[in-house]
Task: inverse folding
């Protein structure tokens, strides 16, 4: 688990980009995780984060040998600003299409307008990667989680992420936090494979993704 740190500015929480497993990379910072999937036919980026840390994400992409214009899709796991403030700017820079859970579109409107609304059972295929989506309300009403396979050597790993694991601190969320979040967490636990992606390093264990998943190596 990360040691909790205090920064005056989010961009001060810089982290080195690294490979997690297979075609999955971390390019985020301490305040919010950003993951990159290299499909062989373009990149898929998960949660751009804050506008004030977007330069760190872009730098991380370059440092791993990729370019922003290779990004074809930007997946937003939920509407909260720490994951979506940078979405519009990165979409403009890269030309990528943006995705968001259908139940979060109204609240996300102040940050960006998604090109694709995701619902339960939807899939997204690009290159060698097919992502399967699930609606998992709890952190927000429209939180989405997803799963895909990646290959490391001769082994296939099932990768998954719970789109919002932290409890939303707001009275309006209490009911579906207590019901949906717990139920979805249990359901996801049964479906998650070896490799799991954290959303917020300070709250979760993204710094040790590479150790937990067993096959990652810093790129």
Result:
């Amino acid at each position: 688990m990360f040691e909790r740190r205090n920064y005056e500015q989010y961009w001060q929480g810089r982290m080195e980009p690294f490979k997690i497993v297979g075609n999955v990379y971390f390019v985020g910072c301490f305040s919010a995780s950003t993951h990159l999937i290299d499909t062989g036919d373009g990149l898929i980026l998960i949660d751009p984060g804050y506008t004030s840390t977007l330069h760190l994400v872009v730098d991380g992409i370059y440092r791993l040998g990729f370019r922003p214009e290779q990004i074809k899709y930007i997946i937003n796991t939920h509407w909260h600003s720490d994951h979506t403030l940078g979405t519009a700017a990165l979409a403009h820079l890269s030309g990528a299409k943006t995705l968001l859970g259908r139940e979060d579109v109204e609240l996300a409107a102040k940050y960006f307008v998604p090109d694709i609304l995701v619902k339960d059972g939807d899939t997204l295929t690009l290159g060698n990667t097919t992502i399967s989506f699930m609606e998992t309300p709890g952190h927000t009403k429209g939180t989405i989680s997803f799963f895909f396979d990646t290959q490391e050597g001769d082994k296939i790993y099932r990768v998954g992420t719970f789109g919002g694991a932290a409890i939303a601190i707001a009275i309006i969320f209490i009911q579906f936090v207590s019901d949906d979040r717990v139920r979805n967490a249990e359901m996801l636990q049964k479906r998650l494979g070896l490799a799991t992606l954290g959303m917020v390093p300070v709250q979760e264990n993204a710094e040790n993704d590479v150790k937990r998943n067993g096959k990652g190596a810093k790129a």
The helical segments are 54-63, 81-84, 87-94, 105-108, 174-191, 209-213. Residues 13-212 form a domain with the Metallo-beta-lactamase; Chain A fold (CATH 3.60.15.10). The mean pLDDT is 78.
